[in-house]
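Changelog-adjacent note: as of this version, every example in the card shows the full chain rather than a window. The one below runs 340 residues end to end.
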Amino acid sequence: MAENEKYFAGLDIGGTTVKTVLVDEMGEVAGEMVEVRSQVKDGYKATFGQLESALDQLTSAIGVGRDAVRGIGMDVPAPSCDGVIWGLANLAEDWVGTNVRDELSERLGGTPIYMTNDGNAAALGEYSVRRKHIGGLLLIAPGTGLGGGLVLPGGRAYEGSNGLALEVGHISSPYREGDGELPQCSCGKYGCLEAWVSLVALRRRIGLELEKPENADHPLNDGSSLEEKAFRLRDFAQDGDELAIAIFRQQGQILGYGIADLVRVFDPGLVVLGGGLAESEGFRDDYLNWVKEGFEERAWPMYSHSPIDPEKITTRFEWARGGDSAAALGVAFSAREMFR
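Full-length structure tokens:
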């Protein structure tokens, strides 16, 4: 390594694993991603030990010392502001109220650290793998919940004054259950978009549909848990099962309807869909079409095509392409921009 060569690390802290990457001054990935078991439930100091171990593995793999890392980007699975965790989420209690950014920086000898939440990090990652994209990017990621993030033109995440922006799963959705009631979200409120578009929402929808007399003989009425039924639902949809397709079509259309409101506010130009569906070849094309149907129902025509040049698409939709390392890459690239 040349004496002045610099590297920048991305640390993606999850509830199950911690994924870490290195990039060099040119923005090229150095070595392979290192993944270690997460110890967030054991407290932030235990996690710091895991982060140091990962950094040592990253640097030794390319033959440099840890002092070659001149800046770090880190994301956490919880709301935070200026390095301080604001909410428990899936973390141990000692994370809350702690400036983990500054504590880790001190532990690492003063290495500067940029910290954000996991939704922003994933959005930054999707931006970083699109080298030719210079506009904005809105990430929407259906998973257990519904996460997301917004990257502004130039590559900076919009986090809000308190780091609390882009809780996309908790915007209001006008859709109601068959009895006219708003569904309750996992956040405790009613009528959130996440209450319709998430793995948790799929479980509720399957339970309600299988209780109907017309679905009494459906193969999913086999005594398995709702969690298992939800896990198998995509396979049923891919095989052409009408009930499974109807459930996913409803979810996709409701998601598109919600995205239309977000696009009306932010006009990002590019909407990237992430989460597990991004990895389902074939079926995801149908799902994206349902999302676009909901989007076009709600959005003004100008948010689809320019009224001046009808051939110009004003809002493009793409699937995520960053893979498992997207969030780690996103914060690594941010650290490179801030600290090089």
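Structural remarks: The mean pLDDT is 93.
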